[in-house]
Design brief:
The complex is a heterodimer of chains A (495) and B (910).
Chain A: H1 2-29, H2 47-63, H3 65-73, E1 78-79, H4 83-88, H5 98-121, H6 125-146, H7 168-186, H8 202-219, H9 223-231, E2 241-243, H10 255-263, E3 268-269, H11 273-278, E4 291-292, H12 294-300, E5 301-303, E6 316-318, H13 323-326, E7 342-345, H14 347-360, H15 364-379, H16 386-389, E8 394-395, H17 416-431, H18 436-444, H19 468-473
Antiparallel strand pairs in A: 1-3, 2-7, 4-8, 5-6
Helix pairs in contact in A: 2-3, 2-5, 2-6, 3-18, 5-6, 6-7, 6-8, 7-8, 8-9, 8-14, 9-14, 14-15, 14-17
Chain B: E1 5-6, E2 15-16, E3 25-32, E4 43-46, E5 52-54, E6 60-65, E7 71-75, E8 82-85, E9 94-95, E10 106-108, E11 114-116, E12 125-128, H1 129-134, H2 140-143, E13 151-155, E14 164-168, E15 181-184, E16 187-189, E17 199-200, E18 215-221, H3 224-227, E19 238-243, E20 253-266, E21 279-280, E22 283-284, E23 312-314, E24 320-322, E25 352-364, E26 368-380, E27 388-401, E28 406-421, E29 424-425, H4 431-437, E30 448-452, E31 458-463, H5 481-487, E32 489-508, E33 511-530, E34 541-563, E35 568-591, E36 610-632, E37 636-647, E38 658-667, H6 670-673, E39 679-693, E40 704-706, E41 708-710, E42 716-718, E43 727-729, E44 732-733, E45 741-754, E46 759-778, E47 787-810, E48 816-832, E49 839-842, E50 848-851, E51 859-862, E52 865-868, E53 877-880, E54 889-895, E55 901-905
Parallel strand pairs in B: 3-9, 15-19, 44-47
Antiparallel strand pairs in B: 1-20, 2-20, 3-6, 4-5, 4-7, 7-8, 10-11, 12-18, 13-14, 15-16, 17-29, 18-19, 20-25, 21-22, 23-24, 23-30, 25-26, 26-27, 27-28, 28-32, 30-31, 32-33, 33-34, 34-35, 35-36, 36-37, 37-38, 38-39, 39-45, 40-43, 41-42, 45-46, 46-47, 47-48, 49-50, 50-51, 51-54, 52-53, 54-55
Helix pairs in contact in B: 4-5
Chain lengths: 495, 910
């Protein structure tokens, strides 16, 4: 009997023992959910690493698919195969912009947010300033291309999963404010390690921030402020924000080159308006007694084509020559060659912002000075690779009288100041070959230069479409007046 | 590559030790049934010997026994086995009694506990180890094929040791694992098939590390209700393997040897055309990729005419091959005269063979028994060289009663597998790609030679392929299959230990405690060597890596059972489960060999071409579980189980404990209706259960990595090459709330037995639906990320299983003939993908296997293909339809009555 009772006690103790066992279940599995190999703790990554990463992404934003699409719609390139035939003919849908939104919001802005957080904690004002400058550029670009975009509620996952959209004007204002903060912070102590675009130059980033401010003021038609900012902007080509490239595919290649030669050979040629405008053998080209564009034409384009596999007749191909793949001399590497640096924000643009702003504020004298200053630089031949200069490179200064009715730059007899403005905008057009800014100009000026549309079309795309993923996941995406031919609000009134 | 293997000849030799006894007197008698009728065919055996006989038509028997007498054992189907001490008698008559218990087949449940099959509320399918061995398959998984309803086993390829895919009751998840949990002697074991894909080598399934001859029984627990004791590891069901144990042989040693030899040949290869030579558009052209050139039969015959260029290749046998002029409109053959064609289906395939030796020793007394085995399997594949699989397994098991109340079982087994594999699949060095695409008039067997260029400079040991027939080009196009077989080496060696200790303590006759703890650990060393001339690894590639995977598992439980009255018997089990898994992979790849023909050496490459890599995951699960079994009036049976579980893979913000409840019931209605000679047994059953699948390790975390910016058309910038090396946060946000997938299943069915248990019928229907399926879903890009991992999808299966067993014949000498007919079908449907159009599973962009809403998992998806008239007499070459630009649609593969195979959009079946 006693033995049986003992057994019962043992059993009861054993069963009661299970209760703490169950409670301790969760403790047994705690502290094992950290990846032992991959970085999941952002604090172990130095600000400089993020800064390099963000700058690489910034190159992608300005140089990859957005630039190609802009270029096809503004006469720099033609679409010649597969999806690019459709895209060049304005056949596009939201899916074409998923990568672009991811590039701006995920690759750039999510990471600048991390830089800003860390930089504030570490009192690194310079890195904070560079991050803010890049944010200002990126939000400005998003507003340029899509109009209303998320700003205030953006980049707050998971706290905000469906950010509200802000009006285009307020996004521009926010971008200006970010750039002001950038300029202020760049003047304070800090380090710029990781910045490869300007080799850590604080003065360089300050100038770039001013030029970007001028760019955005120009877009919002605040010409007075555009002039003020451009005067503080990039003062020479040495200060240009350039994307550098190397000889390694999927690694450092110029992205245009990678696309046209390695990834999608034959998709895109340049049977388009821009090269013909430079070509002195073509009607209505822009060469004149003071101007010889032959070097520029050949640096940017390859007349006759034959470099990549393009079906059908090719008038021009983007010049993808580069010594390591094609065997040409290094000084004949083309603008779209594998190792050629790509412009993001430049002295050339800064001068042309000044020229256009003066022209739009009835100051033709200063407009002409700004334009001629740039032409003087072009006349040195430094704007193209040296191997092309001998083909013909001449940019003599214009006189105001050249724009008078019947003058060198006004054969069709329009008002003198309009002729000057036209030349300034045309110079902007050929200066921005391959850049998104050319497409921004086309839209914000109501196509002042009368760039041709795709065959059979009566209008040109006035905006990029909203990303399909964004449409699928965010109910705040604007639904009215967001068609391909609807102007973004800031560009909708007459230029 | 997939073949059916035929031509299999199996010899099995079996020797059994036995003891011979002296016989010097005769005993006789008559055996009757309870109603007094005589029983013919009853087995009568002298206990402890092989000496026995069978009763005749009158139920009479007569046999010799030792003068000292002994014990006679009477056995007959449907009757309880009885023993009679002969003593001094010379006549032993016996009335046998029908036995119900004998028919109550005992099976094991998901945690390895014995359960009476007739009391289970779920469909149970048991396969004996011997029937797996008898299949003649060299590996375990393929030996289980076709033995259980609702269990689909598909081999991944015909390579020796190639893995196989096990699927029970359809697909229950989308991007997670689809393989059932394997439990061996109460302890989960790995069935990894790591690193398999559409290209590269065939990887092994680790379940095949078990020697089939060591297996006593395999239980397929397909139903969620039965599997739920393993909670979030049991989504795809559980296969419970019980290994053999020693038996009480009264101290004698049993030894057995078995040997098997089998031969394998390719059963069927695709038909290849031999009418048209290399070239295109009806003209011969040497070195081109296509094979719709000139008509071979119309050639002049004889040796080919060299094209006059001094470049040539000289083969090891001294023969030379020169360039041949291409055909033109006037002469479609060009310089090609030879009418010889080659059957490329046989290029590298021959007769494979397998030799297996197995040795077992077992024995014991009433307190302790042991079982030991050694097995050696050596297989040469159907590919003539460098395709082999050698496996050595050793197993030792001992069970002993330490005291009257304390019982211990120890299992330990070691496996060593060494295998040579050949590159296959979607891979320019893949065996069949080069083999089957070769033009019929090109001889692949001359695969290497000394190539002389037009200046007379020699390159020794140059690979020769149909795209590079005189070795003039730098690249081979696709590798010659002989080159792939001889030069591109992939080798793996696996060392594995599986073992467990089980202690049972009988506290009282109503209470027992059990502890089962074990380890499964293996290392696999893989080397992959791509020759410097090979198409896929031009300039050479060598990877060496070590995978280690291990898991500790402990189950503790207490079982209490009591018969309260004739009306009610109850049993309660309370348990605890702890499981810890650790995976590690470390290795390095070297490319761009400095010395092309050097032995494999990671330093034989420039510094910049060496890539080290490592990965690790640790996962831990702990759970408490309980079961309740109730028997009511000996005909209603209720089983309920519950498991409360937590795991390190659950998101920190998800609830920490997940519950997996089940209930199943069985009603032996034959107890109510009564039974007769025709109808012996009837049971209805119904069950409901919930199982789950854990998220992948670290899905809760957002990763940070080297930034790489790529646009959707391909151009890519790597931030590792810029500045200080750029990092960025992943665009995939970790999900702090990630939780296990959950599958609910309802199952019903019946089990019937007829004609003195000779015919059994078991039918089951089920419906299951998995919710919270883990998918990568889109998030608003402007929020900062593009995707997250979330519990978003749903997938369902409905199906039926039928099992009919017939015992045609059972002779007293032990010979029996029975058949088992199984039929099963299921319909799978992807219910929701959270808005995604499709989820890519495997394959290529066009012609991918995908999950897409409203269709079955694994639907083929891609661009429509049409046939276009290219030229006579070649007709209907497939080409991508212009629809390509517009849409992607579901494809169906149609075989026309002309034998043509068409791949067309579903909407336009023609």
């Amino acid at each position: 009997m006693k033995k049986a009772i003992n057994k019962r006690i043992i059993a009861i103790v054993f069963l009661l023992g299970f209760i703490p066992f169950l409670n301790s279940c969760t403790n047994l599995t705690a502290n094992l959910s950290t990846d032992p190999v991959n970085v999941t703790d952002p604090s172990v990554i130095a600000i400089s690493k993020y800064l390099t990463g963000v700058e690489v992404s910034l190159i992608g934003v300005y140089e990859a698919d957005m630039a190609r699409l802009s270029g096809m719609w503004s006469g720099y390139f033609s679409g010649d195969d597969r999806q690019y035939i459709g895209l060049a003919n304005y056949v596009t849908s939201g899916q074409d912009y998923d990568g672009e939104w991811s590039g701006i919001y995920n690759n750039v802005l999510e990471n600048t947010m991390l830089i800003k957080t860390n930089a504030r904690m570490q009192s690194n004002n310079v890195a904070l300033g560079i991050a803010q400058a890049i944010e200002g550029m990126s939000y400005g670009l998003a507003a340029d291309l899509w109009g209303d975009v998320p700003y205030k509620e953006a980049i707050h996952y998971p706290a905000i999963t469906t950010p509200k959209y802000d009006g285009q004007a307020s996004v521009y204002a926010a971008a200006q404010s970010l750039l002001d903060s950038a300029i202020a912070n760049l003047a304070l102590p800090g380090t710029s390690t990781g910045d490869f675009l300007l080799n850590g130059s604080v003065a360089g980033w300050t100038a770039v921030a001013h030029t970007v401010k001028a760019r955005l003021y120009l877009h919002t038609r605040d010409y007075a402020n555009a002039i003020t900012q451009a005067q503080l902007g990039i003062g020479s080509v040495a200060g240009n924000l350039m994307a550098t490239h190397g000889e390694s595919y999927l690694n450092t290649f110029n992205m245009y080159y990678s696309f046209m030669t390695y990834d999608r050979s034959g998709y895109m040629a340049a049977n388009s308006y821009a090269p013909a405008l430079l070509d002195n053998t073509k009607p209505n080209n822009r060469n004149n007694a003071n101007t010889d564009e032959t070097a520029r034409l050949n640096y940017y384009y390859y007349p006759g084509g034959g470099l990549n596999f393009i079906a059908g007749a090719v008038a021009y191909e983007p010049n993808v020559l580069c010594d390591f793949d094609w065997g040409n001399p290094t000084n004949q590497n083309g603008f779209f060659g594998g190792t050629t640096s790509f412009p993001i924000v430049t002295y050339q643009e800064n001068q042309l912002i000044l020229a256009e702003s003066y022209a739009k504020t009835a100051d033709p004298a200063n407009a002409l000075i700004s334009l001629n200053a740039l032409r003087a630089y072009y006349n040195t031949g430094a704007h193209v690779n040296s191997g092309y200069v001998a083909l013909g490179n001449k940019y003599l200064p214009y006189l105001y009288s050249d724009f008078a009715s019947g003058g060198m730059e006004n054969a069709d007899g329009i008002a003198q100041d309009q002729a000057l403005l036209r030349e300034i905008l045309e110079e902007r057009y050929v200066t921005f070959i391959g850049q998104i800014e050319g497409y921004n100009d086309m839209r914000r000026t109501g196509n002042f230069l009368k760039l041709p549309y795709a065959t059979g079309k009566t209008d040109f795309p006035r905006r990029f479409l909203y990303s399909q993923i964004e449409i699928n996941t965010n109910p705040n995406v604007p639904k009215t007046n967001v068609g391909l031919y609807d102007n973004v609000s800031s560009f909708s009134s007459a230029y | 590559m997939r073949e059916n293997l035929t031509g299999k000849i199996v010899f099995i030799l079996l020797l059994l030790a036995s003891t011979v006894w002296a016989q010097d007197r005769t005993v006789s008698g008559r055996v009757t049934a309870e109603d007094g009728s005589s029983l013919p065919g009853v087995n009568v055996l002298l206990k402890g010997t092989t000496n026995g006989t069978v009763t005749d038509a009158n139920g009479d028997f007569k046999m010799s026994v030792p003068s000292s007498g002994g014990i006679l054992v009477f056995s007959f189907i449907g009757m309880s086995t009885q023993e009679e001490d002969i003593g001094a008698r010379s006549v032993v008559d016996l009335q046998m009694k029908a036995d119900i218990r004998q028919l109550q087949e005992v099976v094991v449940n998901a945690i390895g506990e014995n359960v009476s099959k007739d009391k289970m509320g779920i469909a149970a399918t048991t396969v004996s180890g011997s029937s797996v061995v008898q299949s003649g398959e060299p590996n375990l998984i393929n030996g289980m094929a076709g033995k259980a309803a609702g269990v689909l086993i598909t081999r991944n390829g015909g390579d020796p040791g190639a893995g196989s895919y096990i699927q029970m009751r359809g697909q229950s998840t989308i991007t997670g694992g689809l393989q059932p949990l394997i439990v061996i002697d109460g302890m989960p074991m790995f069935n990894d098939n790591l690193g398999s894909g559409t290209g590269s080598v065939q990887q092994q399934s680790r379940l095949n590390d078990i020697n089939p001859a060591d297996i006593a029984n395999i239980e397929f627990i397909k139903s969620s209700s039965g599997a739920a004791l393993w909670g979030s590891r049991a989504l795809n069901g559980v296969i419970v393997i019980t290994t053999k144990k020693g038996k009480n042989t009264s101290g004698k040693l049993n030894a057995s040897y078995s040997g098997t030899v089998s031969f394998d040949q390719v059963n069927k290869m695709p038909d290849l055309q031999t009418q048209f030579g290399q070239g295109s558009n009806g003209r011969f052209s040497t070195g081109t990729s296509s094979s719709y050139g000139d008509i071979i039969a119309q050639r002049a015959g004889g040796a080919d005419t060299p094209n006059g260029s001094p470049a040539y290749v000289q083969f090891p046998d001294g023969t030379k091959r020169y360039g041949i002029a291409a055909g033109n409109a006037a002469n479609t053959h060009g310089g090609k005269n030879s009418k010889d064609t080659y059957d490329h289906t046989k290029d590298v395939f021959g007769t494979g063979h397998m030799v297996e030796h197995g040795l077992t020793l077992s024995g014991g007394n009433s307190r302790s028994q042991f079982y030991a085995s050694y097995n050696n399997l050596s297989q040469q594949g159907i590919i003539k060289n460098n395709s082999s699989y050698d496996k050595n397994t050793a197993k030792f098991a001992v069970n002993t009663e330490l005291t009257d109340k304390l019982h211990a079982v120890v299992n330990a087994q070691y496996t060593n597998v060494r295998s040579n594999r050949i590159q296959q699949g979607s891979n320019t060095s893949g065996l069949l790609l080069g083999q089957l695409r070769t033009a019929p008039d090109f001889d692949n067997s001359r695969w290497i030679g000394t190539a002389y260029n037009s200046a007379g400079i020699a390159t020794v040991g140059k690979e020769i392929t149909y795209r590079n027939p005189i070795g003039a080009n730098a690249t081979p196009g696709y590798d010659n299959p002989f080159f792939t077989m001889n030069r591109n080496r992939s080798f793996s060696v696996v060392n594995r230990f599986i073992g467990n200790i089980e202690l049972t303590y009988d506290v009282a006759d109503w209470l027992n405690l059990k502890a089962n703890s074990g380890l499964d650990a293996y290392t696999e060393r893989r080397t992959d060597f791509g020759d410097a001339q090979s198409a896929a690894y031009l300039s050479g590639s060598y990877t060496e890596q070590m995978v280690t995977n291990s898991q500790w598992n402990t189950n503790l439980y207490a079982t209490a059972h009591k018969k309260f009255s004739d009306f009610f018997t109850g049993k309660v089990l309370l348990g605890f489960n702890y499981n810890n898994r650790a995976y590690n992979n470390v290795g390095a790849t070297a490319t761009n060999f400095i010395i092309p023909n050097a032995p494999p050496n990671l330093q034989n490459s420039p510094n910049t071409n060496r890539t080290p890599f490592n990965a690790a995951t640790y996962q831990r699960t702990s759970a408490g579980f309980m079961t309740f079994d109730g028997e009511f009036a000996d005909q209603f049976f209720l089983n309920m189980t519950a498991r409360a579980e937590t795991a390190s893979t659950f998101g920190p913000q998800a609830q920490s404990l997940f519950f997996y409840p089940t209930a199943s019931g069985a009603w032996q209605f034959s107890k109510l209706t009564g039974t007769n000679d025709f109808f012996n047994f009837g049971k209805l059953r119904l069950s409901y259960g919930v199982v789950g699948q854990q998220p992948g390790a670290y899905n809760n975390l957002t990763q940070f990595g080297v930034q790489s910016y790529f646009d959707s058309y391909g151009p890519t910038l790597a931030a590792s090459s810029y500045g200080v090396g750029g990092y960025a946060i992943s665009t995939v946000a970790g999900n702090q709330k990630i939780r296990p997938e959950r599958k609910h299943e309802l199952e019903g069915g019946f089990d019937l037995r007829f004609l003195n248990e000779r015919v059994t019928v078991s039918a089951t229907a089920y419906y299951n639906k998995t919710t919270d399926v883990i998918l990568q879903t889109q998030v608003a890009l402007s929020s900062g990320f593009s995707n997250t991992i979330s519990n978003a999808g749903a997938i369902e299966n409905k199906g039926a299983e039928l099992n009919v067993g017939v015992n045609w014949l059972k002779l007293p000498n032990g010979f029996s003939w029975s058949s088992n007919f199984i039929w099963s079908a299921y319909r799978n449907n992807v219910v929701s993908l959270a808005g995604a159009q499709y989820v890519f599973l495997a394959g290529f962009t066009d012609g991918a296997s995908v999950a897409t809403q409203g269709r079955a998992y694994g639907t083929i998806w891609g661009a429509p293909t049409m046939r276009a008239m290219l030229m006579a007499p070649m007709r209907l070459m497939p080409t991508v339809s212009p629809l390509y630009l517009l849409q992607r649609v579901q494809l169906v593969i149609l075989t026309l009555n002309t034998g043509q195979v068409l791949v067309t959009p579903l909407a336009t079946k023609t």
